[in-house]
Amino acid sequence: MSQNHRPTIHEVAKVAGVSISSVSRALNGNTSNTEMVERVNDAVRQVGYVPSVVAQSLKTRHTGQIAFAMEDIGNAAYLAMVREIQPTLRDVGYRLLLHSTGADVEDELGVLDSLSQNYVDGLVLCPLRVTERHVAALRDTPVPVVVIGLLPDDVPVDNVRADSRVGAGMAVEHLYEAGARRIGFIDGPVDTVPGHARYEGYRRGLDACGLPFDEELVEFADFQFEGGRHGARSLLARTDVDAILGANDLIAVGALHVLRELGRSVPDDVRVIGMDDTTVAATGFPPMSSVSLGSADRGRIAAQLLLRRLDGDTSPPERVTVPPSLTIRESTL
């Protein structure tokens, strides 16, 4: 037999000595004839038959697959979510499919639209921007969806949130208590949900410390390492700072690299703190203080909420907020 030969249901039926329809009933659990089921299962093992996942999903409307769509799979915050989502789903028989959207709204909307094609049983979505089109699509999804990120309260899907405003404020207050008075802030795009929230948190933190807001101390880039490098160069070219808050760890590590290039000591000359508390922060040089936004917790809770919906729960949508916490390392001591 050719190595490329794929055993068929016809071969199973022939070896088992039953009809094709009997094989189908046995494989789909639609018969109480245990003797026939055993004969079919023996034949399946003998010929090496593997049922078509696509064909089975069309019949049962169950694929055994869950999708996770996020901005960038290379971001350690999303990897922390994956490490919680995947085993939670795997323990009950689901596979996890990963999709990087690049924070492209059209891509995210395309993912939501494709749910009607029955390729997954549910979706965990982590958008950076939530538009009216997102809201409209989320109001009428054919499969359960859980959103990690901030949603309007009237959107009828489960929602797991981080409190970025409080987290950014905690970072500013920690820097102030460490002696910083000119605290620069390198944010991501302010039109994104996390960018807007962390900008507000930075300003609230300044207010809480009695420090004036100075727009010269703020840079907007993107949530990537190069964004941090570009933002730090622009910030340091026009003003002096004694501390920098990066809106995530990638931005903050980018700033660390620029400070090193300029011969500025961390933390002696400039203290640096990030957000997300990922392995990027813990393994930096020096190890970097960071605000944990509970990425792992958010991933695990999202998976648990999704499984509850897949089990048929029709209770009102959950709104879960994971509180931030501060991890202090050498970069701010």
From TrEMBL:
Sorted alphabetically, which keywords does the UniProt record give?
DNA-binding, Transcription, Transcription regulation
Question: By its UniProt entry, which Pfam families does this protein fall under?
Answer: LacI, Peripla_BP_3
HTH lacI-type domain sequence ranges = 7-60
| Gene Ontology molecular function | DNA-binding transcription factor activity; transcription cis-regulatory region binding
Q: SMART domains, from UniProt?
A: HTH_LACI
Q: Where is this region: Disordered?
A: 312-333
Query: What is the protein name given in its UniProt record?
Result: LacI family transcriptional regulator
Q: Which species does the entry assign this protein to?
A: Haloactinopolyspora alba
